[in-house]
User: Fold SANT/Myb domain from Arabidopsis thaliana x Arabidopsis arenosa.
Amino acid sequence: MDEKGRSLKNNNMEDEMDLKRGPWTAEEDFKLMNYIATNGEGRWNSLSRCAGLQRTGKSCRLRWLNYLRPDVRRGNITLEEQLLILELHSRWGNRWSKIAQYLPGRTDNEIKNYWRTRVQKHAKQLKCDVNSQQFKDTMKYLWMPRLVERIQSASASAAAAATTTTTNTTGSAGTSSCITTSNNQFMNYDYNNNMGQQYGVMSNNDYITPENSSVAVSPASDLTEYYSAPNPNPEYYSGQMGNSYYPDQNLVGSQLLPENYFDYSGLLDEDLTTMQEQSNLNWFENINGPASSSDSLWNIGETDEDFWFLQQQQHLNNNGSF
DNA sequence: AAGTCCTACAACCGCCAGCCT
DNA sequence: AAGGCTGGCGGTTGTAGGACT
Assistant:
């Protein structure tokens, strides 16, 4: 019997057994949680029967993994998580479950939904395919650096508010910052070495820094929103930036450490030139969309911050650095 | 206030690989 | 070796609720 035949057979069996579909009720959730608490998970079909649920094993598994599991993290995707998703997706594509391994508490389904609703939306606004080189470049050279900047900005604000110390050291060789994330993760990011000198972004210490910026975290858009969900299980995250955080041992301590996320050292100015040439439109017009667009990539003009950011970009553009 | 549109996300579906008999 | 079963994955759909007109 082929796969389709098998599926039909399964479906018929399910019909015969009058299995329930659609949203789960609180009672069903309770049954499932109770059963798993006592007997553990796995063997989902028999689990479903034994727990007295009129659901497929698949449905039970999905409900447990995506919703009922105690370590499922609720709340909006944070900036740090957005950054990680963009980076890992650029590495692996639509390998949602693999990407989810690197975001504790987040499910593949949630990440997939985030990608479809937020990222693909922006690709649509740019009138380019989400898999196109143009959009990938936009993410890599504008969106992701922007996220880094916002993370640092939010971190600096939080630190100032808490009157605790953040480690910002300024030396003649460059500016290195410690980005403290909402999960007490930290990212060492060297503006000058990783991006600034190569691309003219954030390269000048008296130009863009969290200290001299008037950046205020605002919920104006996907790119400006910031919400750090309460951590339901704090101990789960402790030490997650250490080696144990990364299930793929081949990447431990090398490619995936945050300080390497934006190591664009292999990229040349010609690459950016080519990138711009590939676009028929002005780079910034293309990114920002028409002035009337209310939900463009940066929501230009909606907040002082975004206007400020655009000015910085235009300044860099005019100076030929970008 | 009512209707329509949009967004986010839960849930389902088909396919596949691996294991077991 | 072949067929069946199970779990896992990525793609897609349905829908509740908020935003907009």
Observations:
- Chain A has 13 helices and three strands.
- Residues 1-16, 165-322 of chain A have pLDDT under 50 and may be disordered.
- The radius of gyration of chain A is 23 Å.
- Residues 1, 6, 22-23, 42-45, 57-58, 61, 94-97, 108, 112, 116 of chain A lie near DNA strand C (CB under 10 Å from a C1').
